[in-house]
Amino acid sequence: MADRPATFYAGISILAAVATIGLKVWAWKITGSVGLLSDAAESGVNLLAALVALWALWRASKPADATYAFGQSKAEYLSSGFEGMMILAAAAAIAVTGVERLRNLQPIENVGLGLGISVAASAINGGVALVLRRAAKRLRSITLRADAQHLLTDVWTSAGVLVGVLLVKATGWLVLDPVVALLVAANIVWTGVRLLQETSHGLLDRAIANDDQIALASLLERFHARGVVIHGLRTRAAGPRRFIQMHVLVPGAWPVKRGHDVCEEIERGVLEALPGSSVLTHLEPLEDPASWDDRGLDRRRS
Known about the structure:
It is built from nine helices and three strands. The protein has 302 residues and is mainly α. The protein folds into two domains: 6-203, Alpha-lytic protease prodomain-like, CATH 1.20.1510; 210-301, Cation efflux protein, cytoplasmic domain (Alpha-Beta Plaits), CATH 3.30.70. α1 packs antiparallel against α2 (34-60).
């Protein structure tokens, strides 16, 4: 599936969410376990998040135009932000249910069948999460990565719920079921907070990843050795896209064509090292003091 677009994987996530919701609600109905109910609620969040992810990936895939000159790749952050908020909402609902069950303990029934159904649902989530994680790495998609992380968290959540139900069955301590549900809620909160943090970094135009910065610095160092000075380097990431700009200083005696060729060579090198980047170079003479001002490019644009 190497040639599949990101929206294809969002579709897989939607189908998986529908299947796991059905399985987990069935498991809750036959057992009465509030832990399994909390697990089903998180799968409901998965479905909503997958639907929003599909929309965001569709918008992010649109090319730049007169209205959106830099494209719409930041739509992916809308999806990850929505998913983070929905995760927190689900955690709150699970916590309320868990506290209510602590006040009114109830026995768990049909444990074997309920656990078997929940394990099947977890297997679906785990398999889809691995597929999404590989696709996210290949496509550099924060939306698919967030969805994969959420599904993997769902798998661990299900594992915790299963342990809780088994402990109740083994010990007869009904209080363990709502206690596990509250622990699940705490884990979900942690996942939601991390997703919101990553979303905020993208919306605030955080620099490209450290590995990408190292690759970029290594490339530009080759031009420094040729007497070309590069400074005023600025980078930012917007979903899968990278935006890179820099000042390129060359001797003023050089013909314009020679300086232009150097800029073209730099841009080609960046695109080879960091595919999918948008590169802007600004050619200036070494001898001009204003060329050494990193703010010069901003002033020219203002």
